[in-house]
From TrEMBL:
Domain HAMP: start-end pairs: 199-251
Organism: Serpentinimonas maccroryi
UniProt cross-references to PROSITE patterns, sorted A to Z: GGDEF (PS50887), HAMP (PS50885)
Gene3D superfamilies: 3.30.70.270, 6.10.340.10
Protein name according to UniProt: diguanylate cyclase
One Pfam family recorded for the sequence: HAMP
Amino acid sequence: MNPDPMLRQMRLRLWLAAALPAVLVMLVLLVLFVQRHSFELLQAQQHQAQAVAKQLASQAEFALFAADVQTLQRLAGATKDSDDDLVAVALRAANGHFQAGAGRFGAQLPDFSGNRVHLNGDRLWVIYEVRSQLMAVDDPLAAGLLESGVAESVVLGYVALEYDLSALQRSSRQLLLWALAATGLALVLAALLSALIASSVTRPVAHISDVVRRIGGGQLQARADVERCGPMAQLASGINRMASQVAVTQEELMQQVQQATDELRLQKLEAERTARTDGLTGLLRRRAFIELAEAEIQRSLRYEDPLSFIMFDVDHFKFINDNHGHPCGDAALVHLAELLREQMRDSDLPCRWGGEEFVVLLPRTSADVARHAAERIRSHFEANPVRWKDRSLRVTASFGVAAFDARDISLSSMVARADTALYRAKRNGRNRVEVAEGGFAAGLEQPTA
Ligand SMILES: Nc1nc2c(ncn2[C@@H]2O[C@H](COP(=O)(O)OP(=O)(O)OP(=O)(O)O)[C@@H](O)[C@H]2O)c(=O)[nH]1
């Protein structure tokens, strides 16, 4: 997985923060070390050259005094052979009258005067005075004067040496290369170590930021692995606690929302039920009934199924109200609705049409079957009186039955025909069933009470 740009930058900065000081320290140490080493080598070479010059001067003192060129030549040759880096040796008289030497000087020598060390590129020259101590050898007075500084020794001549420093410089360069190689290796190790440190810091950050991103994206069960977070373990466990808290809160909120939704749904269902059903009897209200009945009529027309309609009205209901009170009338209506339900099929649609008037729609039912159903209801009413205050009141109803046929253009025309049949039943003595004309054979209209 590619780390995001922020983490890449953080890793790079940490890496630089850890590696840069190491690089700088290494470079400074390297420069100091090489400089110091070269300087010390040169110093040592100079000291050695001066010591050689001094020793040669002391050996050449007699020969110079005696102008013994042969001995001087021998001394110069032996000195030159004693050191590979010594390329030329010269012994010269102070007055310049004679000179002996070995090897060739690379360039014009500086003036022969005093004790001097001169550096020119890869060449080192040493000029050393040969002073005479000879006068003091047999003369204690002269020796005392020389020692006290009152008398000066005489310059007999000069020793000149030329050293080739190229080997020394080569070894310095080699040392520099080795030091550079060692520094390079150390830098690589430092870089690796820094990368390791940077990654040990950014890995927990990457892990924690991934977890936070997942939690933000809705995965509330995502948790940081505290073991993997090292120095950021405390931050990781804090985020875990926060995520748990958020998850609990979200769960509670969801439960509350679910509860509120359920309550609303129940309230809506209850409101719909209340709007559709009659509060007293629990039967359908007229408007809800009409909606369902219209749909049934369409279905019956499409499939050419028979459809019938019963309408009934309680007989002398005003009398019940007037003589036993309105609550008794209500109880009678509830009782009749209950009796009606007992006689209905599940597919039938009973309805309180209004006041003490009821209707029933009977899908897939012919007028003949509907008439028998009405008769059954009527006799059920008659056989089951209303109980009111220890009294038993016989309550009857008059029925009109109509079947939907080709002449009906709507529900209302069928209702009108059933209504007509119902009032015929009233006129004909009540507590009886009448079938409307058109939907049924006239011969079937017969009194039932
Ligand atoms: N208790 C009660 N009475 C109602 C309710 N709805 C209508 N009524 C009464 O029912 C009575 C109907 O009386 P009418 O229309 O004269 O008919 P009836 O007395 O049943 O006489 P017929 O229908 O000719 O047999 C009225 O007194 C209305 O007040 C109701 O919900 N509860």
